[in-house]
Input
Amino acid sequence: MHKGSISVQTENIFPIIKKFLYSDHEIFLRELVSNAVDATTKLKTLSGKGLIKGDIGETAIEILLDEEAKTLTIRDRGIGMTADEVEKYLNQVAFSSATEFVEKYKDDASIIGHFGLGFYSAFMVASKVEVRTLSYQDGAKGVTWACEGNPEYTLEDNDKDFRGTDVILHINEESKEFLGNSRIEQLLDKYCKFLPVPIQFGTRTETITEGEGDEATEKEIEVDNIINNPDPAWRKAPADLTDEDYKAFYNELYPFSTPPLFWIHLNIDYPFNLTGILYFPKLGNSFEVQKNKIQLYSNQVYVTDDVKEIVPEFLTLLHGVIDSPDIPLNVSRSYLQSDGNVKKITGYITKKVADKLAELYKKDEEGFISKWDDLGVFVKYGMISDDKFYDRSVKFALVKNIDGKYFPIEQYKEEVKAQQTDKYDKVVMLYTHAPEQHDSFIAAAKAKGYDILVLDHVIDNHFMQHMEHKLGGITFVRVDSDTVDNLVQKDEQAESVLSEEQQESVKGLFEAIVTSTGSTVMLKPLSPEDQPVTITRPEFMRRMKEMQGLQGMSFGDFPDSVNVVVNTNHPLVANKLVEEPDADKQKEVADYLYKLAMLNQQMLKGAELTAFINKSLNFLK
Ligand SMILES: Nc1ncnc2c1ncn2[C@@H]1O[C@H](COP(=O)(O)OP(=O)(O)OP(=O)(O)O)[C@@H](O)[C@H]1O
Output
């Protein structure tokens, strides 16, 4: 037996590890299993080069839990270590790199906790760590290194008879959770799901069928429980994968979810290394809830699902996996943001996504259109937030009209130009966010030969604002924002059949009825075919208010701004109302017309609505 003292360059590291590493203790398992994987990969490499004679045999890594002995063991059948190597790698390399790391990041506990310290993170959860190891080299002798979380360690020979390393953790009092089967299972699933070496944790029962036809019997057998898929889809060549393989992998990542719309296989080795698969999920009208689903890996080791720094914000709506050994992982956020490689990766991913969409649109326009309702959100979000993406995608950014036809927005502008250009030379793109609710406005606009778009997603206000600015020469106007004659403003002036005096009296009549703040009464000589009274919501104020609401800002109690437009050429106004001799009756008619307009804009509610219905029923008596 040999005793020694770990050379301490700085003050004792163990209290520092315990003090600073309070967050994410669980990372120790990832670190130790990664070391086991490294040792196994090294062995395979040596064998591949013919440097190890004969068959290397079993290489699976095992995780063993002994609740009674309170130990958790990580067992590999990798290269192992000689006594000299243990001294060098565990006492010097591992120790000095851990010391350096803690020194560097001790003011940012979250970083240390998150990224671990390699081998020494074992001391976050263990009061004692034993390493029993046997090197692959001919004639090597087994050695056991043990350390109880202080600078003293022991090293002694053992009789280990199979190549590889057991790291035995004597779990400390505060970390008892790591003696639970399901907790370990959960951690392995989180961090080790796609590690490149099979990892076994206990056994599981499997039902197999023996014999054939009528003779067939079902039997339960115990098999090794391999918790990982060592050869995940993203590491394979796209040519070797079918659509079913991609879907199956999606299901592996997100069990029980709706199949994705399509995917992009990323594969680049210059100027940085990156592989991965990004999936476009079915989003429908939802938005926020889907974020943070992309998982970041480094050589198949799970790192995080917080990829904000690597993937442009709008693409965090995507799902899938990115794997890059080139992303500097154990550094701070601010460093990531300014890192040149990370910027290049972001740019590359954006370009790949835009190219894939362009290709889909070109190759299969119909298929692309059929996916647009789900895809539109990404594309719009991307166009708003990333100029380069805008330039690439404006060609295939679609808008849908009320008849369910889709057009690229630039082409749509040309389609409606002749009918819908206003006196300021802008093409007015009319839209509704709720076709049912705007039925009468839509009917009026259609009768005038206008086309109407459906823009009903929460992102659309921002999208419209952005397109007005970027595309230029267009303005979006909601179909209920003005009376139909004024949706596309022209210079034509219609004549009113009422005298000025009559107009004054009609205006006064309505002003006495319309008392809510924010409402303005206006008279207009519209077509006799149009509604007698229409309530419109001016585009600018409404859109501003909605956009601020979306950003969590508030206009305070700013009332809805609406116009109550009275059509002075409608017979019910021009004849019935004006000619009515009885003042009370006149007021009643005006009020009824106003209520109908409110009803049309879904503004009639509560007691007012009940009174209106009762009044209408009385007419039928
Ligand atoms: N299971 C193992 N089998 C063989 N050698 C090991 C094993 N675990 C650790 N080592 C040796 O100890 C060294 C130090 O390990 P440690 O985990 O601290 O650092 P690392 O793996 O080099 O880097 P990282 O901090 O990224 O984990 C390793 O480089 C390796 O040589």
User: Anything to note?
Assistant: The two ends are 109 Å apart (CA to CA). Residues 31, 35-36, 39, 76, 78-79, 81, 89-90, 93-94, 97, 118-119, 165 surround adenosine-5'-triphosphate (CB under 6 Å). The longest strand covers residues 199-210.
